[in-house]
Amino acid sequence: MGKVEKVSLLSAKNKKLLKNPLGIENPVTVQVLGICSALAVTVKMKPAIVMAISVTVVVALSNMIISLIRKSIPGRIRIIVQLVVIATLVIIVDQFLKAFAFDVSKQLSVFVGLIITNCILMGRLEAFAMSSDPWPSFLDGIGNGAGYGLILIIVSFFREFLGSGTVLGYPVMEKLGVYNFGYEDNGMMILPPMALIILGLIIWFQRARNKSLIETS
Amino acid sequence: MKEFSNKYIIIYSLAMGVSVAILLSLTALLLQPRQEKNVEVEKKMNILSSINVPSEKSNAVQLYEKYIRDSYVINSEGKKFDGVDAFTVTLRAEQKKPLEEQYLPLFVAVDDNGDTLRIFPLEGKGLWGPIWGYISLKEDLSTIAGVTFDHKGETPGLGAEINTTEFESQFHDKKLFDNGAFVSVKVVKGGAGPGNLHEVDAISGGTVTSKALEKMLLDGLVKYEKYLSQKRK
């Protein structure tokens, strides 16, 4: 199993656990996980930020919980146990959003529930939490959540700025007065394919700067 | 990895299931009042928006008390049902009943000019999920004072445009009746005829949602036709 290799790769220092997922081990751009939700919730920045926080909370806590009980989990049902932990946390997050951030929870609609199926979560639990102590697992969760969130926020910034002419709902383009010169918002940016294209550009940019990320076949 | 006995696995799963169930029930119970309040406030904001009263989360309940004077439930013959709260009627559940048994909610508002407006809730099927809205009629029960629409998940930039002011404001002063006959308002692809009182422009690229909205208006309001005709006389 690929597990052994991952462990030696991440067992260095705790700081690395936080930093690496933001760059060279980014779950979205390098491991190409969690793409589906990156398309769906990045039309506007606000839902993207809430989604980023939600995923970070869920992945950090589920990593820690699984790590705490990892020695008691029977190997044969470990995937089910992991899923139950993730699903429980996601439902709790969803309930909290409905109670305290109703507007955003409406915009995110089914995508909060779909955090359960986000590959980043199961990936971190299986590859890291099952074989690490609670504290490093928690940090690893925060790091990966933040790495996912960072990409979401970058993508949503461009989509909102170019697609709706606003940043976090503030009408930047209107204030700049560019509409007077015949500028129009690019409606394409609002559609899901543009999220993929922006994501592709980010991956391109990252690999151009860091040649070690380019796969050799 | 250590081997565990079947007995251990079964007990482990049971314990996990029970503890997770307790945890989730507690969370749901504790947060339920807040969530229901949110839904209620949103509904009040929607109703207010249909009579062109802008409201915020903080003042929606107050404004609702101020403008909405009465609400009741009628049947398709225009007769009132007693003891049913119009605010709590769920249209989606009503639409599954036979027409004669359906509860048709109706809200009565008085605007700043002292005119009486009647508000009718609507619910229908969009392209990807439910769409709904409120429509308010002026005293003649034919002229539209205002509308508000919303949707669960129509395509952003296309069908989702039904809840924008540009689309909604088109309905102002359109008429549901033509020489006493109920005609509703049509959502026309390619643009409404200039000066036509029974047509509005469809959303380009959002034809299915536009048509669904037209159907929602027709199906929803036709149930009130008898009531409206009786009152108009």
Kindly describe this structure:
The complex is a heterodimer of chains A (217) and B (233). Chain A has 217 residues and is mostly helical. Chain A has one domain. Chain A contains eleven helices and no strands. In chain A, helix 4 crosses helix 6, helix 4 runs parallel beside helix 8 and helix 9 packs across helix 11. The N terminus of chain A is likely disordered. Chain B has a six-stranded antiparallel beta sheet. In chain B, helix 1 crosses helix 2. The longest helix of chain B is centred in the N-terminal third of the chain and has 45 residues. Chain B is elongated, with a radius of gyration of 22 Å. The interface between A and B is medium-sized, with 26 and 25 residues.
Largest sheet of chain B: 6 strands, antiparallel
Give the N-to-C terminal Cα separation of chain B. 82 Å
Q: What is the number of strand segments of chain B?
A: 10
First and last CA, distance of chain A: 21 Å
Rg of chain A computed from alpha carbons, rounded to a whole number of angstroms: 19 Å
Structural class of chain B: alpha+beta
Helix percent band of chain A = 55-70%
Low-confidence stretches of chain B: none
Helix content of chain B: 25-40%
Largest interface: A-B, 26 and 25 residues
Residue-averaged pLDDT of chain A: 85
Taken together, the total number of domains of chain A comes to: 1
Task: Kindly report the spatial arrangement of strands forming the biggest sheet of chain B.
Answer: 2-1-3-4-5-6
Number of strands of chain A: 0
Give average pLDDT of chain B, whole number.
89
The class by helix and strand makeup of chain A works out as: mainly alpha
